[in-house]
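Customer escalation, tier 2.

The customer says the design service returned an amino acid string that "doesn't look like it belongs to this structure." They asked us to rerun it and document both sides in this ticket. The original structure tokens are below, unchanged.
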């Protein structure tokens, strides 16, 4: 089977949207991310358990590059140039996360191609938990 063609700059026009990327926020995923990223605390079991609430995941777990990499064939040499993150809610263990991805802008500056994506993560109740604007240098 042939590998998918790389996604190039001309494939990424403002307004382009992608299919949703979905996953379940598991306790294992939250703890592994927290350990790797140095998030503290990984979850808040003592406080939340006493209130009967599910564990909270590290907020930046909702802002990984995984959805982009799953939905696009990254060419070699993509560079993460800039990011703005707006936190709107807490992701909790057991939440079913849907990530919506779109191209907000693309431009050329100093002979380099830039693409700005908007990545919005929401839970199964449709509550937006995070909105990130990621600007990447796109090599092809």
């Amino acid at each position: 089977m042939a590998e998918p063609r790389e996604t190039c700059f001309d494939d990424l026009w403002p307004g382009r949207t992608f299919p949703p990327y979905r996953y379940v926020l598991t306790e294992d995923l939250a703890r592994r991310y927290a350990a790797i990223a140095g998030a503290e605390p990984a979850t808040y079991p003592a406080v939340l358990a006493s209130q009967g609430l599910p564990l909270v995941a590290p907020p930046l777990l909702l802002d990984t590059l995984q959805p982009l990499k799953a939905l696009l064939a990254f060419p070699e040499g993509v560079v993460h140039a800039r990011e703005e993150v707006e936190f709107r809610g807490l992701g909790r263990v057991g939440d079913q996360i849907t990530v919506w991805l779109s191209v907000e802008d693309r431009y050329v500056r100093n002979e380099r191609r830039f693409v700005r994506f908007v990545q919005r993560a929401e839970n199964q109740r449709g509550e937006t938990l995070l909105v990130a604007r990621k600007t990447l240098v796109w090599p092809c």
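Tier 2 assessment: The sequence is consistent with the input. Residues 27-37 form the longest helix (11 residues). The first strand starts at residue 21 and ends at 24. Sent an explanation to the customer and offered a walkthrough call.
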